[in-house]
Amino acid sequence: KAGVTQTPRYLIKTRGQQVTLSCSPISGHRSVSWYQQTPGQGLQFLFEYFSETQRNKGNFPGRFSGRQFSNSRSEMNVSTLELGDSALYLCASSLGGQGTGANVLTFGAGSRLTVL
Amino acid sequence: DAKTTQPNSMESNEEEPVHLPCNHSTISGTDYIHWYRQLPSQGPEYVIHGLTSNVNNRMASLAIAEDRKSSTLILHRATLRDAAVYYCILLFMNRDDKIIFGKGTRLHILP
Q1: What is the C-alpha to C-alpha distance for residues A49 and A65, in angstroms, rounded to an integer?
Q2: Which of A66, A63, A7 is nearest to A32 (CA)?
Q3: Residue A97: per-residue pLDDT
Q4: How many CB pairs under 8 A join A and B?
Q5: What is the pLDDT of residue A105?
Q6: N or C: which end of chain B has fewer CB within 10 A?
């Protein structure tokens, strides 16, 4: 079956712009979580969506937002981009969300954002 | 938030077993222990997970301490393709919480 698909894979933006990243989960998975990965901070949790509802949010400013659609596809948006937002953005899908600890996370390949 | 602690890096010779440790002293009784690895230029991939008992699959084995405050990922015969960053994380039952990845352990395999 198809894996987790993230688009676009690479993008370059300038400071002050906004960006939208997309994540299509594995069919049947209802949870999508998002992460930011940088060399200095490692993998950091952004937020998780389950059945179109945000279940939890990491310690990121309000410029980072997301949503989930009825088909479980998810988008994240970063407004007013800063240089420090340059990172690999990863999403992961799972069957039941992080409230069900046995469910395995399946990650996409990520979207690499460069902010100039 | 529950956290895990792992060594920054480890080295092993090819075709030898590798034991990757993880401490999770604040684990609660319903937390599952998961291991993922990230190869260069890829997203993390699932390796193994468990709750209380030791687990085996085709990729690795997971040994969980009796008090569950630590665990060890065992690669029985390391190959060069096992060179990656290995993350030990806790996923929760019955509790909404953030998923916390540490910095992981960068595993170097020597030919």
Answers
A1: 11
A2: A66
A3: 57
A4: 70
A5: 92
A6: C
DSSP letter string over B63-94? EE-TTSSEEEEEESS--GGG-EEEEEEEE-SS
Please return the burial class of A97, using the count of CB atoms within 10 Å of its CB with bins 0-12, 13-18 and 19+. buried
Q: State the average pLDDT over residues B23-48.
A: 92
Q: Tens digits of per-residue pLDDT, A32-91?
A: 999 999 988 889 999 999 989 998 889 999 999 999 999 999 999 999 999 999 999 999
In degrees and rounded to multiples of 5, residue B81 shows phi and psi of: -75, -10
Q: With contacts defined as CB-CB under 8 Å, which chain A residues touch B59?
A: none
Interface touch B103/A104, C-beta < 8 Å: no
Using an 8 Å Cβ cutoff, are B33 and B24 in contact? yes
* Closest chain A residue by Cα to residue B32: A101
Q: Would you say residue B7 has pLDDT above 90?
A: yes
Average confidence score pLDDT of chain B: 91
- A84 three-state secondary structure: helix
Q: What is the DSSP letter of B30?
A: T
Q: Residues B42, B30: contact at Cβ < 8 Å?
A: no
